[in-house]
Amino acid sequence: MTVRVRGAESRGESREVEGREIIALEGVRFRWPGNTSDTVSIDELHLDAGEHLFVRGASGSGKTTLLNLLCGVHTPSSGTLRLLGTDLATLSPGRRDQFRADHIGVVFQQFNLLPYLSTVENVTLACSFSGRKRRRAGEADDVKASARELLAALNLDPELHSAPVSKLSVGQQQRVAVARALIGGPEILIADEPTSALDANNRDRFMELLFREAEAKGCTLIFVSHDPQLAERFDRTIELDSADVDVDLDVDVDTDPVSGR
Amino acid sequence: MTLLLIALKSARFRRTSLILTVVTIAISATLLLGVDKIRKESRESLFSTVSQTDLIVGARSSPTNLLLYSVFRVGNATNNVSWETYEEIAGQDEVAWTIPISLGDSHRGFRVMGTSTDYFDFYRYGNKKPLALESGDRFEGVYDTVLGADVARELGYEIGDEIIVSHGITTADFAAHDDKPFTVVGIFDRTGTPVDRTVHVSLAGIEAIHVDFQDGGRTGVRLDAEQALQFDLTPTSITAFMVGLENRAQTFQVQRQINDYQAEPMSAILPGATLSEFWRTISPVEQLLFVISGFALVAGLLGMLTTILSTLNERRREIAVLRAIGAHARHVVMLIVLETLLVVTAGCALGVAMLYGLMAVARPIVARRFGVDLAATWLDTTQLGILGGVVGGAVLVALIPGFIAYRRSIQDGLALKV
Questions:
Q1: Fewer CB within 10 A of the terminal residue: chain A, N end or C end?
Q2: Residues B246, B190: one domain?
């Protein structure tokens, strides 16, 4: 079963990565040792710069494994997976980690922040493991100032910037996580159900800010959720089925480019 | 932010359990270092008691016994050496000097030793150090006494004070030589040896207080101090004597000569060799202490391992976050090892601080009771080695949770199992 995700033209705001291939999956299979079926099976998936992908799937549908593949934590059992033109399987585990540090930002469902760091420190932490992000975040200003700028853009009060993260609400914590994922301008932002702990009101505000800032940074967003309501904001949607991904993988090509706003 | 800084902040966040671990490690380190220190200082103190003395001669007995009563004032002589024999040996050509020792009486728990003024000239301790007077002078008169530093300090004596010597080593009044008080004419500097705890009088003084004594008890006749001076106060026997030779090469020859002496059975011992032998008999105790401290350290390290292993679960999220940000799996291992290093280094530092603190508190007590001076010296190579071993052992132990965290972070990937 070949799946081709085709989308509308990428929207404008991305910078030098415009039109560039960001993600390419070809015949990607992943099977845990000892399992009889593939946990992830995607025949084809291409994503260009500026396109945002919605991955829909219930728990157990292999989305976590897919994210681990995209982040270079796991490598496919077969097939090729290219990020920014680099076949991750050709890199050593250490280099894959470095690749993730340099080019990817990750936002989890919750508990994104280290409780022993302040808000700003949690954001700049992303630059600790990546010279590239450090340079890019420090280009205009120092890294800390970039972090504060991002936090401000994500509507986080300046007085919270130096506060311990335990003082933040869940919604605020998720916005800090977005700031950390975006600092240093990675090409890809992977968000794993970042809104599941938020109420509807907060969720909508969060999505708006997420889109606004991702676009501002020219960042390709890969968003995983089981909530179909959120899908309409995205250029593309793929659906992972919980029963058997191999058979039922269905790609819902959303041909209506929906503005993120 | 460096990994070290992350490790520091993370450790500070979980400080309660870590501080307990630090204290455990500190106690182990203090124990190990303390036992090592005590072992060294007691050896040092033992071997510095007598120096430059080639032979110690007494009535025939075991070398250790002779050494203990003549030098350490511990225990009693089985027999005496006659004055004639002493004079004969002292007069030999090979003999440069002798120090006669006459023991048996005491003053308020301190041993009284009769000797000659050669004691002031020839006795050496530590690194060939001669005895020095802190105040006053040598004894000259029959009823003069020179006190060791501890005697004077503990009993609060000064030059000119009079003291009463008790017969034997009892403090009971009936046996007091209270009719013949001694006058303090001098006080020695501290030596850190049994000299500090000795009351020194002349041999004539010992004779004088015993003129009206016979076979260890009073005779019916009582003679006062002035009357006693009328007697010939040359001793008939002494307890032991120290010998310095003209030529050390003759030590064994003279020793054999004394051991084979026909007129009376005597033992001549080499202080250094006998000290070593004595040390060998007591060092297993020290070694045992050291082994026990070693086990305490192992227990401490296992406690640390338990603490770190138990934190691994609560740190799972932290590790997943760091991995998502781009930390390598080996960063995870390093994080665990760094934390261990922090804990164990803090533990060792605290342990050293506790050691010096304890030494400062215990120093006067130990010096008084055991004659061992716990001077605060820099850590020596053995002790640095011990600390290095503690740190190295801890890092090795930390590799276990490090490896578990590594495996887990590979398995978990970026998934946060909430």
A1: C
A2: yes
